[in-house]
Design brief:
With 240 residues, the chain is mainly α. It has one domain. The chain contains four helices and two strands, in the order αββααα. It has a two-stranded antiparallel sheet. Helix 1 packs parallel to helix 3. The two termini are 18 Å apart. The relative contact order is 0.16.
Length: 240
């Protein structure tokens, strides 16, 4: 019995460290790429590349969420293994009742190990959720700043064209007016594209934060369940 309990302690301690390591290894989102301005707006290939980068960031977020789900699944497996081992210990209880005090001391070690692993898991999940929120806020602010700068650059370009047109002949003024309209149109298209990307990103961040909060709640629930199981076993020994 003593050897089996020592094996459980080692297995649960290693599993707890592995779960903490998995929670810390979740990838951070890729940095936001700033668009380079071109004449009369932005180049189409730059906008396409920026949208592709946003898609990749969203894919990275989904991968991170999958990793957090894996951590929760590993926690559930740890609790199930603990239940099975405690059940086996209960079946052997009658045969070793004379050594009850010694076995109680051995059961206190799994109690402490499960508590430490569960606490570390909850802390890691909470820290990961905070990093996700901070990264999301920083990236959203960067995208808003880029959108505002794009609009201001377009306005400045339009004003420059207007000033040149006023100093030129009628033909130059006509060409400048056309260029100004195109600049306004391109600025509007850029603003709408960036607004759409920002809205999609905000939605993804909200969903990811919700899933991260759920992971923290699930981790707490599994730890509470493990405490309850071990407490029931200790109570049964006390009653005996």
């Amino acid at each position: 019995m003593e050897e089996a309990l020592d094996d459980k302690t080692i297995v649960m301690d290693i599993t707890g460290r592995d779960l903490e390591r998995q929670a810390h290894e979740v990838a951070r989102p890729a940095p936001h790429r700033t668009l380079r301005p071109a004449l009369n707006g932005y180049r189409r290939e730059d906008v396409d590349q920026a949208l592709a980068a946003a898609d990749k960031r969203n894919a990275d977020l989904e991968r991170d969420n999958a990793a957090l789900s894996g951590v929760c699944e590993n926690t559930r497996a740890l609790v199930e293994d603990l239940q099975r081992r405690l059940g086996a210990a209960e079946e052997r209880r009658r045969a070793v009742e004379r050594e009850r005090d010694g076995y109680r001391g051995q059961l206190e070690n799994p109690w402490r190990t499960v508590g430490e692993a569960g606490e570390n898991l909850v802390k890691a999940a909470r820290a990961q959720a905070e990093r996700i929120r901070a990264d999301a806020a920083g990236e959203a602010d960067s995208m808003r700043a880029d959108a505002a700068k794009a609009v201001e650059d377009a306005k400045a370009e339009a004003e420059r064209i207007r000033a040149d047109a006023e100093r030129s002949a009628e033909e130059v003024r006509a060409k400048a007016a056309k260029a100004m309209d195109e600049a306004h149109a391109e600025a509007e298209r850029t603003r709408k594209a960036l607004h759409g990307e920002l809205a999609a990103h905000d939605k993804a961040m909200t969903e990811r934060e919700a899933r991260a909060d759920k992971a923290v709640k699930d981790a707490r629930a599994t730890v509470a369940k493990a405490y309850g199981i071990v407490k029931d076993v200790l109570d049964s020994f006390d009653e005996a």
